[in-house]
Amino acid sequence: MALKIMLLMELSIMLTLLAPIVLVRGKLASKHPMLLLSAWHSSLLTAALALLLALGILIANGVLAQVEHPGAIGWLDPLAAAILAWGALAILGVIGVRIWWQADALAKEAREAADRFSVFFGRSVRHMAMGRWYVRLVEFPVPIVAALQSPRGIIVSTEARDRLSERELRAVLWHEDTHLAHRHSAAVTIGRLAQSCVPMLPAAERMAQATSLVVELIADDRAAAHSGAGNVASALVKLGGDSETTALRAARLRAGASRAGNGWKLAATAIWAAPLIPLAIAFWPVG
């Protein structure tokens, strides 16, 4: 039992410390953004599951030590088991409070963003079909195209519509449709919640920031697959202006970096088997 706890804790700590450092290095985000996002979320789930299982075992041992005779927990005396159990509960409490605090802050940000977008609905709004999408066209002199989870849909300003060709507009709509279909706002939220659990780790902050870019690259790739990389790149430039990030995304599309092979897509799916590791450790039939 002690070995299981040690292995689970080591796995959780190793993934928490090393996964952000490894994943933000190199060109993985640019070449294979879906793989990076899958690896990041899989490592988060694996680390969290390993920690919860380790703490759960400690708490269970503490309870057993109080209701069974001392020999029931052969490797731990009842007093030590109780102390470790309370320590495990304290750790869970601290983590829970940090996640709740950050989730509340993010919810407040989301409400403020919704309030800002509500200004658009006070303007002249037309609901109209654009290809396969039913969008809200808003009279506004700034080029804006945005996907909203609540109320769910895509907003297009008249300035954005006028700047883009029909193919470019279709590419942008595919991009925003990807954000909605893949719930990318949730992916960004998960990254920020994970960062709140280990605020002292700079790599976690960089990984949370990288997540925001990665979801844009994934949306770029899907839009390019449906509308052509050239149309997505030109639309980015027209809407993003002189932004350095926009220029890099457009250059990536023109270079063809978005064409991921089936092998990488399979790897992005297979990597979700990682959470089985802590489960195997916890339920391995060895003392």
Overview of this protein structure:
It is a single chain. This protein has 287 residues and is of the alpha+beta class. The protein has one domain. 72% of the residues lie in helices and 8% in strands. It contains twelve helices and four strands. A four-stranded mixed sheet has the order 1-2-4-3. Helix 1 (2-24) runs antiparallel to helix 3 (33-67) and helix 6 packs across helix 8 (202-227). The chain starts with a helix and ends with a helix.
Short description:
With 287 residues, the protein is an alpha+beta fold.
Layout: helices, strands, pairs:
Elements: H1 2-24, H2 28-31, H3 33-67, H4 78-121, E1 125-130, E2 133-138, E3 145-149, E4 152-157, H5 158-163, H6 166-181, H7 184-197, H8 202-227, H9 229-240, H10 244-254, H11 262-270, H12 276-283
Parallel strand pairs: 2-4
Antiparallel strand pairs: 1-2, 3-4
Number of helices, where a helix is a run of at least 4 consecutive DSSP H or I residues: 12
Q: Kindly give the count of domains.
A: 1
The secondary structure category is alpha+beta
Alpha carbon gyration radius: 24 Å
N-end to C-end Cα span: 5 Å
Quaternary organisation: single chain
Q: Give the strand order, joined by hyphens, for the main sheet.
A: 1-2-4-3
How do the helices and strands follow one another from N- to C-terminus? Answer: HHHHEEEEHHHHHHHH
Overall 3D shape:
elongated
Number of strands: 4
Biggest sheet, open or closed, and with what strands and sense? 4 strands, mixed
In the predicted model, the low-confidence regions spanning at least 5 consecutive residues are none
Percent in strands: 5-15%
